[in-house]
């Protein structure tokens, strides 16, 4: 008898929901996550408590600090719930100390980074902008400006869509209220940053004019991009940078399911409901899974609105100059990538994406800048501890 019936990779909302539904049906479930504890990017607060408690009581076994590669423990089915990471768009000065990813800044502040009295510009696109600006202000930072690349019309369209989601509307209104008095620029973006040793000044394109602002830090991010490496390694079909799934959340590979941000960016509710469907389907409970289809459709409609409203504009592709770094691990500039036709050619000729992050930062950037995608994936994909490899093999 196999030790595990369902192996779930990722213990964020999607993975936890999948594991709960599968384990509660009596299946033997193993959950692997590379973080020290369960919760993923967002389920670390009180709101997540009911799901974390349910998970603890479900009978699923959790292994943390464990990077899953293609050497997964043997099981009848797998659920990939590997989430997403930030999309960075290179611009002159983006590698200066003091320039943070939006999510990175959020995580650092939540874990104690002192920002009191610091002048911070918050820029990029999407709902995370307001969440991070609000958090910074609560922790005593002087938020100098919030700079959203989406224009007013798109923002208004998204606002109208929120009327169908009273909870999210109230959340958005609360964040806006917490930022009263902070200049909020729409249809605007950071063109470059300068400073001696660390960021001192931000140059922004706001409508038709240039605005310059002194600051101590810049938090910038242009949305999220799915973590598809493991799915690609297992041979799952991808489209537009996300894993393709059918109505049961099953990928193009038999008995391999995917759920959450890895199938497309859409927020925590989409991740949770997709996770539930995947967990039920992986455990053979299609009838119960089907009952959640309508709820999933609502979250997909919200995700579509999100993607339309905050799609990064074409002008952002022109920010990086010939001397601007694109791959910061291997010091590869945009100029060095000129004339390259593919990610493979860029890797072979310049070592772009061959450093410690293995393309987790510049891979998203080059997909956005040049439309490249990874055409092959080699294990172990990420730097991984040998004990992680041994542990997953022996399970
Ligand atoms: C940086 C960042 C900040 C965010 N901030 C907010 C916010 O403030 N508010 C909000 O509403 N939403 C926020 N989101 C979005 C929110 O996190 C997602 O909607 C939600 O967490 C998605 O759930 P998920 O289960 O799909 O993925 P995640 O929550 O990302 O969980 C995926 C888990 O899989 C693990 N994992 C990935 N690959 C492997 C592997 N190979 N082996 C083992 N483990 C692996 C990851 O470490 C992670 O724990 C943020 C997202 C990011 C990336």
Automatic annotation (TrEMBL):
One of its GO terms (molecular function) is oxidoreductase activity. Residues 5-270 form the FAD/NAD(P)-binding domain. PROSITE patterns: PROKAR_LIPOPROTEIN. It comes from the Bacteria. Keywords: Oxidoreductase. This is NAD(P)/FAD-dependent oxidoreductase.
